[in-house]
Design brief:
Blueprint (H helix, E strand, L loop, with lengths): L5 H5 L3 H9 L3 H6 L3 E7 L9 E4 L4 E5 H30 L3 H15 L2
Parallel strand pairs: 1-3
Antiparallel strand pairs: 2-3
Length: 113
């Protein structure tokens, strides 16, 4: 069985949808007076598209569902990277993760005063 990126599991046509972004001719559309207002689609629904330029009104449309998904994936990735950095620092300074958390709480509390 072929492995899927998480977004591919959400939408079987994601490869075709993502191809639209690179073929959107953004510079050409800016020269034609690209509308600065962005419209969101897929609000509160499943992803049906990622983003494209509507040729009728020369306006960018973006999937709110994809933005939410992308934000979550970025957030999870950043937390995982932070976790790895913290674990290495704990090993380097020979402290436990609990000690690191306790020290962090103390620093945060002192900064609030």
């Amino acid at each position: 069985m072929q492995s899927l990126f998480p977004v591919q599991a959400l939408n079987r046509n994601i490869t075709e949808i993502l191809k639209k972004i690179t073929s959107a001719d953004i510079l050409g559309n800016v020269n034609k007076g690209l509308n600065n207002n962005i419209s969101f689609i897929d609000v509160g629904k499943a992803i049906s598209n990622v983003a494209e330029i509507n040729p009728i009104n020369n306006k960018v449309i973006i999937s709110a569902a994809y933005c939410q998904y992308f934000w979550l994936m970025c957030s999870i990735t950043i937390m995982e990277i932070d976790r790895e950095v913290i674990i290495k620092a704990c090993e380097q300074y020979r402290i436990s993760l609990a000690q690191f958390i306790e020290g962090t709480i103390l620093i945060v509390n002192k900064s609030k005063k």
